[in-house]
Design brief:
Layout: E1 3-12, E2 16-17, E3 20-21, H1 22-26, H2 31-43, H3 53-64, E4 67-69, E5 71-72, E6 78-81, H4 82-96, E7 100-101, E8 110-111, H5 114-124, E9 125-127, E10 130-134, E11 147-157, E12 160-171, E13 175-184, H6 186-190, H7 201-211, E14 229-236
Parallel strand pairs: 4-12
Antiparallel strand pairs: 1-13, 1-14, 2-12, 3-4, 5-6, 6-10, 7-8, 9-13, 10-13, 11-12
Helix pairs in contact: 2-3, 4-5
Length: about 240
């Protein structure tokens, strides 16, 4: 089976927010960490006394409804998972109409539906599974550099408009991510890229897609301009 591998390095220009549910990470923390969560809850007017292990889990679940965090590697360092890169590619490709297909009776190719865009990316593009955040020296950003960001959320309820506080872990720029993307059966993908000429239409497609990151980023609260990035490096890996 033919495949091609591409190397990508992105530089974040705005803070990145975690997307994972709190409990999936904090359930593994010790009692001291639970106590910190309790204090965070009380700061926002939520009563969460921690008396025993069961109460501690309840406190975690309560704050977990309002807080999102980064996934961690085995050493506790924050990471992104490859599916988030896939998700970004799906959004960029569908928004920019980057996949095109000729249709019978039509002179010009037409954009693929959003459903078909998702299918193509799921079946043909495979990013690195665990992606670390890097500083300007290329060193892994550790848990100690992760901050907390709070923002109000407004919503309409049966009792009228209500405002709650959403909490997310945050990594501030300058920070980078560096990863590889493998494209399997690239000849099939190239048939969907008639607008790109040259030796490697897939490389051109990836560049066009990741350029969209200057406007719509990765992570939580993308609509608020968080997680935006620019391309630092994009190339095909030599076999």
């Amino acid at each position: 089976m033919e495949k091609r591998e591409y190397h990508v390095k992105l530089k974040f220009t705005t803070p990145v927010l975690g997307t994972s549910n709190t409990s999936s990470f904090y359930l593994q923390k010790n009692r001291e960490e639970i106590e910190k969560l309790r204090r965070e809850l009380e700061k926002h007017g939520i009563d969460a006394q921690v008396g025993d292990a069961e109460d501690g889990l309840e406190a975690i679940e309560e704050i977990g409804k309002k807080m999102t965090v980064f996934r961690r590697d085995e050493k506790g360092n924050p990471i992104l998972l490859g599916y988030m890169i896939k998700g970004f590619l799906k959004t960029a490709t569908a928004t920019l109409d980057l996949f095109m297909k000729a249709k019978r009776g039509k002179k010009e190719p037409e954009p693929l539906s959003e459903y078909m865009v998702k299918k193509v990316i799921d079946l043909h593009f495979f990013p690195t599974y665990q992606i670390h955040f890097l500083d300007e020296k290329g060193e892994i950003i550790t848990d100690s550099l992760v901050k907390v960001f709070e923002r109000p959320l407004r919503g309409m309820t049966a009792q009228g408009e209500r405002v709650t506080i959403a909490i997310s872990e945050m990594i501030e720029p300058p920070c980078f991510i560096e990863f590889d993307i493998t494209c399997v059966m690239p000849e099939k993908v190239e048939k969907l890229l008639p607008q790109f000429s040259g030796n490697d239409p897939i490389l051109q497609y990836l560049r066009e897609a990741f350029l969209y990151g200057e406007y719509c980023g990765i992570g939580q609260f993308r609509s608020g301009q968080f997680g935006r990035f620019v391309i630092q490096e994009l190339r095909k890996n030599e076999a």
